[in-house]
Amino acid sequence: MYVKLFDSELKVMEILWRSGDTSARDIAEELGKTADWSKTTTYTVIKKCVNKGAVSRSEPNFICHAEISRKEAQEYETSELIDKMYGGSADKLVASLLGSKRLSAEEIQDLKKLVEELK
Question: Considering 27, 67, 94, 114, which has the largest number of Cβ atoms within 10 A of its Cβ?
Fold first, then answer.
């Protein structure tokens, strides 16, 4: 399932991916501390995640469950980035990363290994 998640929604998803099923109250408590969100803001964002199908909720205690994995979200976001910024060409993304010298020698070696495994 592909779902576009905004930064605020990713904050909720990060908690669920890290902690597993979590009550909305506990999510609100954590985001109140880390993001300075009110309980109302947190519940609104959770509702958006539910409406998108990224999160399901169950009673009692409004327990939230991630319906998409971190990997699925990463794959979608990467695909969006490649389409939007590199005309759908993954090799242009890799060339950009290599050209900007943002990768360490170890990261480049890991990329080479990945490419070999894909052959």
Answer: 27
Strand order in the sheet with 63-66: 22-23, 63-66, 55-58
CA distance 86 to 37: 35
Cβ atoms of residues 111 and 90 within 8 Å: no
Distance CA 113, CA 116 (A): 5
Nearest to 12 by CA among 62, 55, 53, 71: 55
pLDDT in tens, 16-45: 999 999 999 999 999 999 999 999 999 999
Cα distance between residue 80 and residue 72, in whole Å: 12
* Rounded distance between C-alpha atoms, residue 45 and residue 24, angstroms: 10
